[in-house]
Amino acid sequence: MRDSKQTEEKQSPQVISLVDYALEYLAGAIISGELKPGEQIKEEDVASRLGISRPPLREAFKALEMEGLVVRRPRKGVFVSEIKEKDVWEIYTLKMALYGLATYLAAGNAASRDLQRLERIVERMEGCLAKRPPDVSRYQFYHEEFHGLIMDIAGNQRLKKIALSLHNQVKRFSYRSLTHEEHLRNSCMRHREILQALRERNPGRAEDLSRRHVMEALEFLHRILSGGLSTCLDKGLPQCVRPMERAI
User: How many CB atoms lie under 10 A from the CB of residue 20?
Assistant: First the structure.
C-alpha cells in the first residue's frame, strides 16, 4: 500500500513541480559552491529545508546523478561529485566538439532574426564587461543564452541536451574563471568573432572560433585552479586545439 501511494505521488503534477524545485535548489547550491565537492547531501536536511517529502527529492537526486553533479554511495548516501583533472579535460574536449558542431550547423541555418537576437545578447555581454566592476553574474547568464540560442539555431535537440549536461558539470569552474577580467575580455571578444562568422555564413570559421573559445577556457582553468590541469594538458590535449599556446 505504501509503494502504491509513493507511485501515485511521483506521477502527480504537484510532485513533478516539486522535483523541479528541488533540482533547481540543489544544482544552484552545487554550482555556486555552497555545497562543496565531496560534501554529503543529507536527504532529511534538504527535505526539511525545502518543505517537501522524500520521493520528489529522490527523483531530483537521480537527475543530478545523471548529470554528474552528485554520486550515490551504497549505505553512505549522496555526495557532491568531485571533479578531477581528467574529468575536466574529458568534459571540455567533448564541449569543444559539440559547441563546434553546433556553431557549424548554425552558420547554415541562421535567419536574419536569429542574428539580430545574437547581436543583442553580445551587446549585453559587452555592457556587463564595461561596468566597474564587471557584472560577472549577468555575463554568465548572457553567455549561456548565447550558446543556448546557437544550439536552437543548429536545430539538433539531442546535441543541445548533451552539451547542457556537460556544461552543468563544470559550471562551478567556468563561473570562477569569468571572475578574472583577462579571461572575461577574451571570452567577450570570441563571442563577437563567432557572431561575425555566422553573419558571413562561414561555417568553418564559426566552428574553429567556437572550438578555440572552449579550449581557451580550459587553458585558463589550467592557470588559475589549484593543482592545475597540467597533467591532462601535457599528456592528452592535441597541439592543434591549444590556441593560446600556439599563439605564443
Answer: 14
